[in-house]
From TrEMBL:
Keywords: Cell membrane, Membrane, Transmembrane, Transmembrane helix. One of its GO terms (cellular component) is plasma membrane. The chain crosses the membrane at residues 12-31, 43-65, 86-115, 121-142, 186-210, 338-358, 422-446, 458-482, 488-505. It is found in: Cell membrane. PANTHER family: O-ANTIGEN TRANSPORTER-RELATED, PST FAMILY PREDICTED COLANIC ACID TRANSPORTER. The keyword Cell membrane applies. It holds the Pfam family MatE. It is a multi-pass membrane protein. This is Polysaccharide biosynthesis protein C-terminal domain-containing protein. GO terms for molecular function: antiporter activity; xenobiotic transmembrane transporter activity. It comes from the Bacteria. InterPro entries: MATE_fam (IPR002528), Poly_Biosynth_Transport (IPR050833). The lineage of its organism: Bacteria, Bacillati, Bacillota, Bacilli, Bacillales. Its main location: membrane.
């Protein structure tokens, strides 16, 4: 037997990721307009280091809770032991994040790493890294229990909060507080993460109130909470050991992955400053970190949504049917990555000047064009990590992360100090690092469940990308009043609908993937079934 592929959950989480990333680009554009390109570069340089410090709470603990609760089944109600286990684990994660931030700050004494300029900004982020484990725990609980809608809504609310806070009133307030652009960015992200936690907490309390229902059930729940904890101490500590074990691999993988990217940026800026001066170094770093990387990663919303949906589904399926049942899911992951990354890389390559111009950094177009062919390797990391974890091979994440970081940082150092490639040394380091890490993850996943590469899907993905690019090129050559530059969203929608329709007709995208679309899900599903020849 094979495990049903989570098309519905993937579409739901992908939609939430799409909204978040789209609003994130709006936030970045308005943020740099309000505070300047240099502030955007400083913020983007500090952000990986903040993620590095909060890896336990923002990645490791949510992943562990998702796997732990998913393996336990689809029970909606947490037991008394589970509640206490999650509370203790969350408090431990908060303490570890503070210790991790302190360790990152200690690295600022190494001049080569270039962390010194963002030292104060990292100290300013302490409230943010304390909030992140709370939100991570709530998301892990809900996704592990199969309650996917509320995390998706909360994620969208966080992105909306980010965009809403970049307004003249907020800018005046931040100037009154004498905060620089980097501190303003951290403050806005902290407020957005607080909004996410608030939405999750209110939603879970509402679910609990509805679930209790009658006074009899409410009394039973109170009696359960008031039961003595001492008799459950052994179970709680056993559960904590399980969670800490499940937390270790994704946390270390995130630490290694973020360490490479987090140390790469300040180290690159330090080396560029020594060779070309601070002004040129700041401009190149802003173009790379605040423009090229966000644009390249924007289409990753579908890959991240797929990864979020895969982990609980495959973990639960493996517990019931064994590892061999994961084979079809792995092949579907590869197909999905072809369908996503090939058209995305083609569009990014062709329209790099346009997209970079929207963020007031047209010079970043050349960087984006060179990095666009790497979309497949960048997008495949999250889904492959979920497959490997579901296989019980979490250690592979560590091997892949270590190899990727080693290749990334060594290439960066050699290309800038020996070959003097300038900003292209950054691109070379990114290319080698992401290729090595993704290749190792795929090798581990393939060794456990060998599958054939779906060349047919690759061909159809190329054809879909050609159609999307053709429509956008046609729109770009229309009169300005009707063209792509003045009306980008309608033309992007037309191009994506055309490419999606082609993939549905070619049976590469199943109709059920459209069901979670709000309001239009059912009609789109019926239309897709007709196009795919599945109409009864």
């Amino acid at each position: 037997m094979s495990i049903p592929f989570p098309f519905g959950k993937t579409s739901l989480f992908s939609l939430a990721e799409f909204v978040s990333r789209l609003l994130g680009l709006f936030f970045l554009a308005h943020f740099m307009k309000a505070f300047g390109l240099d502030a955007g570069g400083m913020f983007r340089t500090a952000l990986p280091l903040i993620i590095l410090a909060s890896a336990v709470g923002s990645v490791g603990l949510p992943t562990a809770l998702t796997r732990w609760l998913a393996a336990d089944g689809m029970k909606k109600q947490l037991s008394n032991q589970q509640r206490w286990t999650i509370v203790i684990a969350t408090l431990c994660a908060m303490m570890l994040t503070v210790l991790s931030l302190n360790a990152v700050l200690k690295l600022s004494v190494i001049a080569l790493l270039g962390i010194g300029p963002v030292d104060q900004l990292l100290r300013f982020s302490i409230p943010l890294i304390l909030i992140m484990p709370v939100g991570g725990s709530l998301r892990g609980i809900l996704i592990g229990r199969g309650q996917n809608t509320l995390p998706a809504i909360a994620q969208a609310c966080g992105a909306i909060t980010q965009v809403a806070l970049v307004n003249p009133t907020t800018v005046r307030f931040l100037e009154h507080m004498h905060w620089n652009g980097g501190e303003a960015g951290v403050a806005i992200v902290t407020a957005a993460e607080s909004a996410v936690v608030l939405v999750l907490a209110i939603g879970m309390m509402g679910q609990q109130y509805v679930r209790l229902g009658t006074n009899h059930k409410r009394k039973a729940a109170v009696d359960n909470r008031n039961s003595t904890i001492s008799t459950d101490t052994a179970s709680i500590w056993r559960n904590l050991r399980t969670i800490f074990r499940l937390t270790a691999s994704p946390t270390l993988q995130t630490l290694l992955e973020t360490l490479g990217f987090g140390l790469e940026l300040p180290m690159a800026e330090h080396l560029l400053t020594l060779q070309f001066g601070s002004a040129m170094a700041e401009q190149w770093m802003a173009e790379y970190a605040a423009v090229a990387i966000p644009l390249l990663h924007f289409p990753m919303f579908a890959a991240d949504g797929l990864a979020t949906a895969l982990l609980p589904t495959l973990t639960r399926g493996r517990a019931v049917e064994g590892s061999q049942a994961l084979g079809p899911s792995l092949q579907q992951v590869v197909r999905s990555m072809f369908i996503l990354s090939v058209p995305a890389s083609m569009v990014l390559f062709v329209f790099a000047p346009t997209f970079s111009g929207w963020l007031d950094a047209p010079q970043a177009a050349n960087l984006l064009r060179v990095m666009a062919p790497l979309a497949l390797f960048a997008y495949a990391q999250s889904p492959l990590s979920s497959v490997v974890q579901a296989q019980g091979r979490s250690r592979a994440l560590l091997y892949a992360g270590f190899a990727g970081d080693l290749s990334r940082l060594s290439t960066l150092f050699i290309s800038m100090t020996v070959w003097h490639l300038g900003v292209w040394g950054l691109v070379s380091a990114f290319a080698l690092g992401v290729s090595v890490e993704t290749g190792i993850l795929y090798l581990f996943a393939w060794r456990m469940t060998p599958v054939a590469i779906p060349w047919r899907s690759l061909g159809y993905a190329v054809l879909a990308g050609v159609q999307v690019c053709a429509i956008l090129i046609f729109a770009a050559h229309l009169p300005l009043a009707y063209g792509f530059l003045n009306h980008p969203l309608p033309w992007l929608a037309i191009a994506l609908i055309t490419g999606g329709t082609f993939l549905i007709i070619s049976k590469e995208v199943p109709p059920q993937a459209l069901l979670p679309v709000p309001v239009l899900g059912s009609p789109l599903n019926r239309i897709a079934k007709v196009l795919a020849g599945q109409d009864e």
